[in-house]
Hints:
Two copies of one chain form a homodimer.
Chain A (H helix, E strand, L loop, with lengths): L25 E4 L3 E10 L13 H17 L4 E11 L5 H17 L3 E9 L5 E9 L17 E5 L4 H11 L6 H11 L5 H9 L4 E4 L4 H10 L4 E5 L26 E5 L1 H12 L5 E8 L3 E6 L2 E6 L2 E3 L3
Parallel strand pairs in A: 3-4, 8-11
Antiparallel strand pairs in A: 2-5, 3-5, 6-9, 6-10, 7-9, 8-10, 11-12, 12-13
Amino acid sequence: MLRSIARYLDPPSKDLLVAAPKDDAAVWRGDPLVVATTDTMVEEIDFRLSWPDFDFRSLGRRLISINLSDLAAMGAEARHALVSLSLRGTLDIASVRRFYQGIAEQAHRFHCTVAGGDLSATPGLLTLTATLVGRIGAARAMLRRTGAQPGWQIAVTGSLGAAAAGLRLLESGRRPANEIERRWVSAQVDPTPRIGAGRALVESGVRVGGDISDGLYREVERLVDEAGLGATIDVQRLPLAKGLNREQWSLAVKDSEDFELVCAGSAPRLLLAQRALARLNLPLTVVGAIERRPGIRLRTRTGIERLEGAGYEHFR
Amino acid sequence: MLRSIARYLDPPSKDLLVAAPKDDAAVWRGDPLVVATTDTMVEEIDFRLSWPDFDFRSLGRRLISINLSDLAAMGAEARHALVSLSLRGTLDIASVRRFYQGIAEQAHRFHCTVAGGDLSATPGLLTLTATLVGRIGAARAMLRRTGAQPGWQIAVTGSLGAAAAGLRLLESGRRPANEIERRWVSAQVDPTPRIGAGRALVESGVRVGGDISDGLYREVERLVDEAGLGATIDVQRLPLAKGLNREQWSLAVKDSEDFELVCAGSAPRLLLAQRALARLNLPLTVVGAIERRPGIRLRTRTGIERLEGAGYEHFR
Lengths: 316, 316
């Protein structure tokens, strides 16, 4: 196996004064307001080498994407990535190279250097961590989970449910049979972080939002819970991914791992945001509203449901 | 097991505008020159729960310390830590709490916030990553691995060999029998990063150095190799840890995991640095010299040896 990751890290540049691992740490010129996040993927939990057509290159891209999504959720831009990888010594070098290739291509695509890294041998499961350091322009110019107001609308970027449908397909061991199924799988293994959309939301004056990588339901809960507010999500309005029918809406709501953004704002504010996202060819769809009454409600064709823990609780 | 690490992360403060995981990422006011590093510990490779008197609290401190040591090696100060942990669901909550307690106490001891974190479940080995973001005052005010000059002296902070002696004791399964052995074990499981010493070296005008967590031999090699220079290390002058005898010098040279610093500079420069470190009650011991002739040589009682790969090669 690879003993050093030196060749896969970026060399010094105008953005990166000193590059690890040639030195003990990376050095760069800082930004006034720094946004930072870290996220890990564990083999057998977040991915399986046994999935059909498993590709280390898209795994590398995904490691950067899941962290970029956290920056997007703040309305931030990415600047520098550090990766810390625990790999088995039995892993073939071509796979390791493809993995780093994926890391570098996704980082560079989002104007981010691969500034540092650490490589550990493990006799166990592949465990892959990235830390992303980014920036925002002003302390007011970010998306937060606090500040939602009753009467505001809730909107989501892009389409929902494809990642969950892709995961089901991968776990069944069946190869995608058509273009639609290929898109589902791609939404799971190689999601697109919404960095541009996060910036556009902030520039439109939206200040409340997050990413829905833990599921739409969970994220909406986070936006209202602390303020003692509630929300209703209108299941009929969810922008389901192509190929999903309306009966499969639950794929879009819970544990869905779609790396889309959800935001909340007044109706006129979200109309501005919709126009800004249209310029990025990305829909922003109103799917519900913030309400005074605590709890998250789902409006389905047959009535109002309430999702709790692992299942659904009908309360009306 | 713990589902959230929220309670173990620092709340917002003057240093930390937005704290994860309440939001998707941490936000802080940046510094003009940022230094960043990441490092991972893997169970069964870097530590074993079966070691005598294994303590999760010192494991937490060590996770921060090994990263602090990389900042110390640049002459940097720490500002913010992000931790990403893959833990087994079977781990008892008291152990997890002690682990976080150790992380927080070591971070705070070195004026560093615990700004963000991620918790993954793993069915495999504990895999523990921290990323540390710090600062230096000026682009010239740091330690680099480049710039060593022939004729310069090589010096190390503190004492050497204790961590390797401690590891042998831990792996033998025997409990330390006296205060000296307890110090060896402590050097392995709970090292002290040399943040203050790194700053003092830089303030004394020293510009070439690194940490010797990969062994003194390996680090001296890094300081001279790229410039096509060499070095001789005088084994008789190594500041061996208390309780080690001169015949055990190899514990101080290779794979030693002492988290001390090595530096290189002119004799008058290192004299200044010695005085500065004396004010921190830390010895700085000259142990060798940079030379024009490539290769690393060890001067022992019986002659000159050359260390290569896994063993020693006598070449004179």
